[in-house]
Design goal:
2 domains; elongated
């Protein structure tokens, strides 16, 4: 009697723990195949949003540093525009580039890793320091 069980994990550590437990309890009666890594469209969309938010935060911090250099303070954003978003590496369809199974686990993980970048432009209001001094007086 043979049976095949497919399990989808979203946590690599949990996958390793379950595989270790099955191997420990069932011994040689169980065969665990190499994992197939893939990204759901929702996960890639979440990554894109996180990268965009991080890019806006970086832009704001840089603008604050420039304002400090000139003795000004950064005001509210007037315009924020996402200029370009790129993603590279990995695969989304669950099919690694080498289907022969000769890749190591680390190579499979590296092939499945997705990277993203986002370029934004922002226009901020600039406030003079005098406003803060007047409020304190």
């Amino acid at each position: 009697l043979h049976s095949q069980v497919c399990i989808i994990f979203s946590d690599f550590g949990k996958m390793q723990n379950v595989c270790n437990l099955l191997t420990e309890k069932l011994g040689s009666s169980v065969t665990i195949s190499a994992p197939h890594f893939y990204h759901t469209p929702e996960a890639v969309d979440t990554l894109r949003r996180q990268v965009c938010v991080a890019a806006v935060g970086n832009t704001r911090r840089k603008a604050q540093e420039v304002c400090r250099l000139f003795g000004q303070s950064l005001g509210r954003p007037l315009l924020i525009r996402e200029e370009d978003t790129k993603e590279w590496g990995g695969h989304r369809d669950g099919h690694p580039s080498d289907t022969s199974g000769s890749l190591t686990l680390q190579e499979r993980i590296q092939n499945a890793t997705v990277y993203a970048s986002c370029r934004v432009s922002a226009v901020f209001e600039i406030k003079g320091k005098e406003n803060k001094r007047n409020k304190l007086l």
